[in-house]
Hints:
The complex is a heterodimer.
Chain A lengths: L2 E10 L2 E11 L4 E5 L6 H8 L7 E6 L2 E2 L5 H7 E4 L11 H7 L11 H14 L14 H14 L4 E5 L7 H16 L4 E5 L3 H7 L2 E6 L2 E6 L1 H4 L2 H8 L1 E8 L2 E9 L6
Parallel strand pairs in A: 3-8, 3-9, 6-7, 7-8
Antiparallel strand pairs in A: 1-2, 1-4, 4-5, 9-10, 11-12
Chain B lengths: L5 H42 L7 H13 L10 H33 L12 H15 L8 H4 L2 H25 L3 H25 L2 H12 L7 H20 L1 H7 L3 H6 L4 H23 L5 H13 L3 H25 L8 H19 L5
Amino acid sequence: MNIAVQNVCFSYNSHPILQDVSLNVQQGQVVSIVGPNGAGKSTLLKCMVRLLKPQTGTVHLDGKDIARKNSRELAKALGYVPQNTRDVFSFTVLETVLMGRKPHVAWEVSDEDFRVVTQVMNFLGIENLAERPLDQLSGGQKQKVFVARALAQQPAIFLFDEPTSNLDVRHQLEVFATIKRLAETEGRTVIVVVHDLNLASRFSDTLVMLKQGAIYAAGKPEQVITEDNIREVYNISATIIETRYGHYVVPIEPLGETAG
Amino acid sequence: MSKINSNHSCTDAAKLKEIYTRQTGKKYFIIGTLLLLLITLVLLSISIGTASISVGDVVKSISNKVLHTQYEYTNNLADTIVMKLRFPRVLLAVLTGISLAGAGAVMQGILHNPLVSPYTLGMSGAASLGAAIAIVLGKGLFGSSFDSMGPYFIAFNAFVFGFITIFVIIGFARMKSGSPATLVLAGVALGYIFSAGVSALKYFSNNDALKDLVVWLMGGMWGATWQAVGLLVPIVSICMLILLSYAWDMNALSTGEAVATNLGVNIKRLQFICLTVATLAASATVAFTGIIGFIGLVAPHISRMLIGSDNRFLIPCSCIMGALVLLCADTVGRTIVSPIEIPVGIVTGLIGGPYFLYMLLKKKQFH
């Protein structure tokens, strides 16, 4: 399944956020969306999962406009994990992951649902947390549970909004390793909004760099992550060093006045 | 998903299913136990009172009526007291408890706020205003006078006023694309308006009407007739069944609107249906009992502590818990200083409040 964004423009109350953004994501790719705060990354993701309706432009899933699809179909095609979740009422880990089966469940949970949930929890290594209430878990564990919930939906395309922003370095690596596995061994498409340029470039097939609501650069990580691009988009000076594990961005200092 | 040892994954699936079945089994057990408790309490309540009737006589009386058996009583007045006075009263308490607690649980879920009750969106204020207009002015929404509908006039007015507030709130929400917080605040604002209206009517009314109004506002079971029960049983049960059918959607909603939408939940439609049906059920019982506070707020909380937040179990558990608490309160209210009856609203506040505080202190985490 591929997802295509065509000429999407979005504004909040006449504040333009996305300006004529077009993007084509093929199946089995990991695409990272990077950019400064306020560049429109989360907004783009929300337009892609039909949480927001763009003023102009369309999003197509395998050629069909998502605005026309019914919500159940969409739920089975797109799995979205937002930046923060609230938990006022507490559920256990198992209950939370089971929630992901909602597009597939009528009332009672079936054996197939258990099979999927088990696979998913094993995949993320959280099967022993099944009975724990969610609010007793650490940030890293909770994030894995939310990813598991999205996985239980069995969508073709995953969209993660900053899944690693609040995690320690180990959990960041684990989450991205999972993302890579989803694409490589399961053939899913993963679109991730991420702040860390190094994680993005190391684990993605394609990198999309947004600046002020428009795509500044898109392509292979080595092509997009250049000192010039970083200077133009983030307004900082940086140097890029070669390591055995790929390019590594070393930020140096902010330049001039902060842009907008 | 790629897995090295597929046998391993089968065992795990069975293990997770076993955990799930065990957890849900516990929940069914809790609901079953509470239901038994409720039935026991119903029989006990009917037997307790100024004239005490043995539980045996109560059962015989019900059985004679329902199963057409021909049992003899030890107490000649048993049939009258049971059938004409106590049974309808107890049933009204049960129905009201179910309705308020079920509506409360649903509203807390939809508005994502553990502090809301069925009254939060202005329903109690409006129902009070409707009752006040009927009692003080003898006129209602349609200008009809007291006589044309008899004793149900007050109830009808209270119900209509109470129920239409939900449409005011929904209309407001549509206009301002309201978040739950906005809805709650709008309800609070409406509450002030209605409260002012009720106060004005109190101020300008004569003494008889004032007493009637104050008593209505306190909440009690004096409206307990078989007609009322007959009207409420279908309304309350159908409403609760409708709400229960949306349990999965409500569960999904608690994960956040973004994820719920992604899972296929139509949030606006869910809010509309659940809030409307919950308000319908609650206004129907409030029309007959007046404003009984505490049940709609606290029965869901206690249930959540017992049974968790899964609405498939929380809604039925809250309903039974509400019925239990209200029936207890009403029974205590009419027996503790017998033959004087303390209005049930006073009992729920005085005894329920401190008990709930105690439960909060005891519990280590509060959700």
